[in-house]
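Lay summary

Proteins are chains of building blocks that fold into shapes. Our project writes down both the chain and a compact code for its shape. Here are two examples, one after the other.
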Amino acid sequence: MQLPQCPKCQSEYTYQDNLMYVCPECAHEWRDDEPAHQDDTLVVRDANGNTLIDGDTVTVIKDLKVKGSSSTLKIGTRVKNIRLVEGDHNIDCKIDGFGPMKLKSEFVKKN
């Protein structure tokens, strides 16, 4: 079976890990059923693997401690009109009662 070249660095030394392809040279991971994305296109997935886009409404799936505060963001909290950003915390949003905040996409699910 011929494995595809890495879409990021064009390396031929890719390998398959379950449903994902991995490039050992640049550490890029992608799925075969995904369309090839340009490097400037940000793809963010929620905890269930659904693709998120700007303006989506998501629900928090785990109680989250808020840094710098004694309060906790409870499970089931709905967050409307998210904005996707680069970085570790890739969701920028405003939460009623908390204000502006950044979240990790692995702790939310798309509604």
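And here is the second example, written the same way.
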Amino acid sequence: MNRENKRRKYEKGYYKKHACLDPFTCKVCGREILPEGAGSDHRNHCPYCLSSVHVDNEPGDRASACHGVMEPISVWVRKNGEWAVIHRCTVCGKMGSNRIAADDNPMKLMALALRPYGSPRLDPKRIKNMVKTMEDKA
């Protein structure tokens, strides 16, 4: 079956309101990813390596022509306490964030969260002062 017949065609913006129920193969680690287990209707990254693919210009529009690998570069915590993975496209450099999923690899998430502490650019004295300042305010 060729790619044109395999790929379903939906009207523009379909995925903004509908769950994507199609399994996919991760471009980085090669594992088959099923939408079940994400804890959400929108599976948008691999739970094993946390990589994604640049398919949207706006969430759910599937309008990007880039289709580069979105590598996980960091995590951040939203106002409601929910974690999100920050991705950067290896082709065009666009950055975006995706909510973490229920079945994401916790060790990969922690490695991303702690990456700045392993960076030689951060002075250990500055980190200690920052932590001390945070403790004083608590």
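What can we say about the second shape? Residues 3-137 form one domain.
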